[in-house]
From TrEMBL:
Pfam families in alphabetical order: AnmK
Protein name, per record: Anhydro-N-acetylmuramic acid kinase
Key words of the record: ATP-binding, Carbohydrate metabolism, Kinase, Nucleotide-binding, Transferase
Cited InterPro entries: Anhydro_N_Ac-Mur_kinase (IPR005338), ATPase_NBD (IPR043129)
Pathway: Amino-sugar metabolism; 1,6-anhydro-N-acetylmuramate degradation; Cell wall biogenesis; peptidoglycan recycling
Region: Disordered, residue numbers: 350-373
Binding site for ATP: G19, T20, S21, L22, D23, G24, V25, D26
UniProt gene name: anmK
Record carries keyword Lyase: no
Record has Secreted as a keyword: no
Amino acid sequence: MLQAKLPAGRIRALGAMSGTSLDGVDAAVVETDGTRIFGFGPSRYRPYTQAERAVLARALGRWPGEDLGEALEVVQTAHLEALSGFEDIDLVGFHGQTLAHEPQGRGTHQLGDGDALAQGLGLPVVWDFRSADIRLGGEGAPLAPFYHFACAQWMGAEAPLAFLNLGGVGNLTWVDPRKGRPDEEGALLAFDTGPANAPINDVMQARRGEAFDRDGALARQGRVAQGALEVFLEDGFFLRMPPKSLDRDAFADMIGLVTELDDADAVATLTAMSATAVLRGMEHCPEPPERLLVTGGGRHNPVMMEMLRAALDCPVEPVEAAGLDGDMLEAQAFAHLAVRVARGLPTSCPGTTGVRASVAGGTLSRPQRQETG
Ligand SMILES: Nc1ncnc2c1ncn2[C@@H]1O[C@H](COP(=O)(O)OP(=O)(O)OP(=O)(O)O)[C@@H](O)[C@H]1O
Ligand SMILES: CC(=O)N[C@H]1[C@@H]2OC[C@@H](O2)[C@@H](O)[C@@H]1O[C@H](C)C(=O)O
């Protein structure tokens, strides 16, 4: 079995994440034994070209068995490029590209072939991280929380804190670092908060032909339409208790609430919707966190960050304030999770996905001929 082939103790794992924004593949090295973080290694960003992004965008919402050949080719090629050339890697964690996510319905679909990637890289690859959790009644997401727990311990945190990922979708993890293990009761509470950047990006693309609202420049010129914000907050998702998760386009209809507004007011209102969804999420924290550490591209949006700061009592800081890398945190998470899978350690628990019991998700593929270094 693989466990016997991996070196004991800390190993160098390489993780890859292709996020819901469809911007590209992040790849990053973590030195970890699956429990503790010992250090961080190099990282790389391999953007999708416009043409590749268009192929992936067309594939959104599709399930295995549907016409996916071209999209699979994009995902495999980009990952092979992103993950090649790192030195002394023992194990790879490959998230793939989420195309569809219906935890209470058809399941979850991350496009990508871990077997082929293992052959291509000559390295063992852990993939399909989410399915096992869903089979056991979980949401299959978010999965970064077990890594957030390790980060909190690496930081030496002594009091509860929270991590917020502002990607296409937002997700929040409340961590109690005083607990011994991430799957101990009360150590973690995690869930998706709502849409984050995806609707802003969609409106920027449709109205301005731009990929996103750089530095919140357009939102800053606009006024928030309170009526639209209130209608948005009436969505049943906000009444659900966590854990809960979202598909990228679960809130695509919210764009209809801003159709009548001019560009600046529309983007300001969507920004306020995403920030307010986070504030609603913060109300679920079992104890007030001593700080909120923000990762993902949304931490670069000062308007979104100001909205959070204005409404929260605790400091709201980019994860860099704690010595972490907010552009690579999720890629690192899948490196760390891969080691957990290979060692049979859980990757989710009732507090993070609502799964019935802690579960080690993921499938392991080994290359027929493993490279030596
Ligand atoms: N300078 C900036 N100003 C405003 N927004 C920004 C800036 N930089 C990045 N973003 C936003 O962050 C997004 C990318 O975030 P990120 O890479 O965390 O998303 P992702 O990993 O694809 O998403 P997810 O975590 O949902 O899978 C961009 O599409 C954009 O909306
Ligand atoms: C199904 C899926 O891919 N979900 C992503 C998405 O992007 C953010 C949010 O929605 C989170 O639930 C998850 O990703 C992060 C990395 C996670 O699993 O922790």
